């Protein structure tokens, strides 16, 4: 980094290095010191706003919803309202199942405390520290209170994924010079940590994600069966969808069985608890269970009405009276022929 000709004493060398780095900053960077805090980020950072994957999933299902709702004007009578609710509820279940794989708030913990900001510095900042656990990794947030302290914007949101080796991500975080609270929490999930959180969290997340994708397959199959004259099996598949959602919750809940590792920062500490995605999965599972039970029950009690409601397996000849207009016979060709009136069944068989 520096010329090898710098052969001064330790104190003089350090002073010369500081002057050299201050005199030749990187392009667009402001390498200055302020109260012993080092601005490792050369450019202004922008905080995390919204997950790109979640945005893509929501847009795809919105397009599907709009496309399916465009057919409603072509449906007559009261069945139009039934089809609207059917489309909305079905797509809601589908988008929730897919989105839950990519959310980062199955479990979380937050606290506001005074903590050391950076290494080799005595500067203490007041900030809100958060840990957000997902199926594929964790998010660690640090937001100053106020956001601007020591002439720097304190608003971090760092992602550590299970896919890659978290040790490598932790080393990159050290090279970036991330604040101490973020490094402290990330270190708890490394392989060398005595807490051993990485093993349980990673495998629990993988099994929970696998069962959620299985629930999504059951949801697709249920929608296909609802369009066929097998409404009973569609109800069974909705209950299977609910079962796999509950299995994913049970898999993720195993993280609470490991010895809880207390995160102590400053004078405060916190532990993770279930968060929004976990309770959303529970609500979606209950909704699928209720739909499945109602479909099976109504199909056993009033099967014809169920087929009519879902517009499947309805025979027009059985459901409506067929009226035939008056016919006229040429009596010239029918002398001596006995004519008996045709019954509706004979007319129907003649048409077939």
Automatic annotation (TrEMBL):
Main subcellular localisation: membrane
Keywords for this protein: Glycoprotein, Membrane, Transmembrane, Transmembrane helix
Q: Name one GO cellular component term.
A: endoplasmic reticulum membrane
Localization recorded for this chain is: Membrane
Query: Where do the TM regions start and end?
Result: 47-71, 83-102, 207-226, 233-258, 278-298
Checking InterPro entries in the record gives:
Dual_oxidase_maturation_fac (IPR018469)
- Give the protein family: Belongs to the DUOXA family.
Instruction: State the PANTHER family in the record.
Output: DOXA1 FACTOR-RELATED, DUAL OXIDASE 2
* Name of protein: Dual oxidase maturation factor 2
What taxonomic lineage is listed for the species of origin?
A: Eukaryota, Metazoa, Chordata, Craniata, Vertebrata
């Amino acid at each position: 980094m520096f010329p090898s000709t710098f052969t001064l004493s330790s104190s003089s060398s350090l002073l010369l290095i500081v002057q050299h780095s201050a005199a030749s900053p990187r392009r667009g960077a402001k390498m200055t010191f302020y109260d012993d805090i080092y601005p490792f980020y050369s450019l202004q950072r922008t905080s995390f706003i919204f997950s790109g994957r979640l945005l893509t999933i929501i847009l795809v299902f919105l397009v599907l919803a709009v496309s399916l709702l465009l057919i409603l004007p072509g449906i007559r009578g009261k069945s139009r309202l039934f089809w609207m609710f059917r489309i909305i509820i079905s797509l809601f279940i589908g988008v929730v199942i897919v989105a839950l794989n990519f959310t980062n708030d199955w479990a979380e913990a937050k606290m506001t405390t005074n903590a050391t900001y950076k290494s080799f510095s005595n500067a203490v900042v007041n900030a809100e520290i958060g840990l957000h656990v997902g199926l594929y990794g964790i998010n660690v947030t640090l937001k100053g209170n106020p956001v601007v302290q020591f002439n720097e914007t304190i608003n971090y949101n760092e992602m550590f994924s299970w896919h890659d080796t978290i040790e490598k991500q932790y080393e990159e975080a050290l090279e970036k010079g991330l604040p101490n609270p973020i490094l402290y929490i990330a270190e708890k999930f490394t392989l060398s940590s005595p807490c051993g959180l990485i093993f349980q969290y990673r495998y629990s997340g993988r099994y929970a994600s696998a069962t959620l994708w299985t629930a999504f397959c059951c949801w697709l199959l249920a929608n296909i069966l609802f369009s066929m004259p097998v409404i009973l099996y569609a109800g069974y598949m909705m209950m299977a969808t609910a079962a796999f959602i509950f299995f994913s919750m049970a898999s993720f809940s195993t993280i609470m069985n490991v010895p809880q590792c207390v995160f102590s920062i400053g004078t405060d500490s916190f532990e993770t608890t279930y968060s929004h995605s976990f309770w959303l999965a529970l609500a979606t599972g209950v909704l699928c269970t209720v739909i499945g039970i109602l479909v099976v029950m109504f199909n056993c009690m009033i099967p014809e009405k169920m087929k009519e409601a879902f517009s499947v397996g309805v025979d027009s000849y059985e459901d409506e009276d067929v009226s035939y207009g008056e016919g006229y016979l040429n009596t010239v060709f029918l002398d001596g022929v006995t004519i008996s009136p045709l019954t509706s069944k004979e007319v129907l068989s003649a048409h077939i």
